[in-house]
Automatic annotation (TrEMBL):
Protein origin, superkingdom: Archaea
PROSITE patterns: HTH_ASNC_2
Protein name (database record): ArsR family transcriptional regulator
Domain HTH asnC-type: 11-73
InterPro entries: ArsR-like_HTH, AsnC-type_HTH_dom, HTH-Siroheme_Decarb, TRASH_dom, TRASH_HVO_1752, Tscrpt_reg_AsnC-like, WH-like_DNA-bd_sf, WH_DNA-bd_sf
Amino acid sequence: MAEVVVYMRSPDETDLEILQLLVDDARRPYSEIADHVGLTPPAVSDRVARLQELDVIQNFTLDVDRTKLQNRVPVLLHLEVKPEAVERVFEHVSTLDKTEHSFQQLDGSIVAHVNAPNQDVHSWFREALDVADLVSYDIKPLAHYEWNTGITPADFSLSCAVCDNTVTSDGETARIGDEIKVFCCSSCKGMYERRYESIQQGTD
């Protein structure tokens, strides 16, 4: 049987505030967050753990300003890629150790913010990528950039594991196997539980 979890049905305004505080500083102590949101540090820790189980928080990362490192120049790459090579080029660009952010657009073109070596950037580019996969490319130096990491209530919603509808305060949460799942209603939760139990019985 699936274990029903009795804590919060869906993330609320307090979770939103906790998330924003962590976005601003992921090393912020839980005691400081607790003072901001009016909870105890253990209660904050519990909420963060639940948000991790729901995959709202996936990891805590270190944000390094690579422009402060020696011999780096920030540039914006715009790549027009041959259709058959789009996925391969995007994966390669995304995994370059000098790439800050990369984006694949609907038309198959790729845009990336890269901190290239402060040398002949075009020579570095031709060594880093296989230009045979490209139709054309453009490299422009960046004078300034800023990323907005703010979180708003409109961004903060979970989808039902069955029907993909947005889960509201009337939704339900359950632990199914080793995972936390959220549902928009008891009908969807029951449907998912029956499906899960049927699969489990078939594998026994």
